[in-house]
Amino acid sequence: MSRVDVVRAAPGDFETVLLRLLGASDARVADLFASTASTAPAAPAAPAAPTAPGGPDGAQPDRAITLRAIVASDAEGGYVVVESDFEDGVYPPLSDLSPATFVEECEIFEEFSARPMGGKPLNRVLVPPHAETDFPRLGTGPPVVEPGVRAPHVVAGQAFEFPVGPVRGVGQESLYMGLVTTGEEVLDLYLHQWHKHRGIERRVHGWPAERALFLVERAEGLSAVATAWAFCRAVERAAAVAVPAPVERTRAVALELERLYNHAAAVAALCQSTGLSVGQAQAEIALERLLRVNLAAAGHRYLFGTLAIGGVTRALDVSAVRALLPEAVAELRRVVRALRTTNSFLDRLEAAGTVPQETARGLGLVGPIARASGVEIDCRRDHPYGPYAEHPPEVRTRHSGDVLARMEVMAEEVEDSRRLIWDLTAAGLDSGCVPVPYGEPATGLGWCESPRGESLAWVSVDEEGRIERLRLRPASVRNWRAFDDAARARNVFTDVPIIEASFWLTVAGFAR
Amino acid sequence: MSGRSSDSTARPSGIGRVATPQPKAADAEIREVATSLAESVRSFRRSLHIRTVDTGSCAVCESEIRLLAAPHYDLHRLGFFFTPAPRHADLLLVTGPVARGMEVALRKTYDAMPDPKAVVAVGACPLGGVFAPDDWVHGNLDAVIPVDVFVPGCPPSPLALLHGLLLAVGRLGAKVTEDPFTATATPRPAADAPPPTKAVEVSQPAVAAEAASRSETT
Lengths: 512, 218
Hints:
heterodimer; A: alpha+beta; Beta Polymerase, domain 2; Cytochrome-c3 Hydrogenase, chain B; four-stranded mixed beta sheet; three-stranded antiparallel beta sheet; 18 helices; 15 strands; 17% strand; globular; B: alpha/beta; Rossmann fold; five-stranded parallel beta sheet; 8 helices; disordered N terminus
């Protein structure tokens, strides 16, 4: 079992501790987030009644935060949570050490008004422009955003911005893409994902963990099992509960079923984006069959409601999985084999949307995108959880980092997931939930390898199991930040949908 | 539905051929609905265009909407087509709990559609079953635009969506016969309009704020 260490550092040592941890080979900052300070300075001098967060009275906001960085040591296995209190809303600029954390720094500013030292301009990531002032936040939001806080949006010279979205094609999520171009080549690309922000982390505050699970699954519906498993593990670790191995195997079968249908959907989307109708139809037949396997196995096409805190809600129908899955996977295999010999298709994929290995490491990418760029990480193997210590996955990598590499990695993972499902069902499944006794207020970190990569959940619960702070970091939060790099790399307009299909991310997971 | 052989000729093309694990009763019900709506479909010459808007869904409803055009369901056989332009659309499929960040885009899409138009709310979110209304989301669709058909489900299966689309076609057919399409026509009855809610107040600052943000932020 992989372990989690918690290191509490003085504010002055926060950066030093992180530097020391990141000095180890293959260590990366997996997440960075804030919560309202656990030891809020009692202010007896202030006689006024405490105002609601972001109250309209123009009071000086309380910017004290507890900052937590999660460092993953992929080579040795294990996560380290480094935490520190910062009183005055300023903390060391971690994106200088690890560029991957820039988006998290922007989120922390929007929710808590705290900024990294040095005053670098920040992007708008989650909060819509009309919500700048008095909408409820996790902490105390910025009362007025001073000039210079937001990064300038500059399009100059002969370039112009070609706006796409937020309402896009059929069955595509809302997303604003600003394609900066002089005509055909993509010079730059801006993404606005805040349109879909629903504030799930904010909503579940004070809810029992069992109730919060409902919204956690819907943070990113296409990885409902992975997000739910990460959350359940976080709560179970906080309550120091161990789930029996056969029940964990049931969860793992659900997770691999989720990976199968997502990869099939990615292949269908790749065919659609290259205008290959026949391939698309065939991949969609495989996708529909895989969804029906889910329906037969768990009673829901997208496996919602399968997991529960402490176990699973239902037994999977193993005989249905074993009866229906081989044909569905064979269908997908036939499609991929045909695609691999279709030159007009391969021409569009090769050298499109390249993400070099250094970029993938620097931006902290996870999942098939990282693996296609030669970064060999998979938290099922590096930080084994549930049954994956006994049933390790085979981690497949490519080094070209282009769309074709991503498709090949996904195709090989399909075979591996099918093998894992067979092994896991042969080892025996069980259902049911162990009781989760909440005692002391506690915190926990959970992780899970979703179809898009490592998904993290950090939770702090009180003595009755109510959520004090929930942090969800689905893989989409990490991987979207490589999208503009991939799109810029000598691509033209028509490559952008192909790159998007090969990333197979969701806006919902980012905007939560 | 007593004799299968006798009603097979009257049956709209393809409805009975959908191979799904749905119970027989649901299948028969859909067939019945489709038959009764055949008249209104005809008024559109079997060419009805659909636009979709995501207002904060979890991406699963989108997946089911994409599958509508896949071989198992193939909505084109019923005369439905997806369109990339709201000005060509007769029907609007809306997913998600209507996040306020999407409100301007949703209204613009709805306003750009020519009359008569129908709105189908897809899934539990726009029905108000998932997110409670607050400063970030409206929580249900009819707080913002009038809704003709609600399709429940989390997510609704493609077959349920087809059912909802056919029901919406019935509503559209009625609107065609009601609407005189003249400049002097009185506006539609106010009963159709959404009740004045906070949503309406938010929209104006939202437009201004979005315009401002486009020029100064990323």
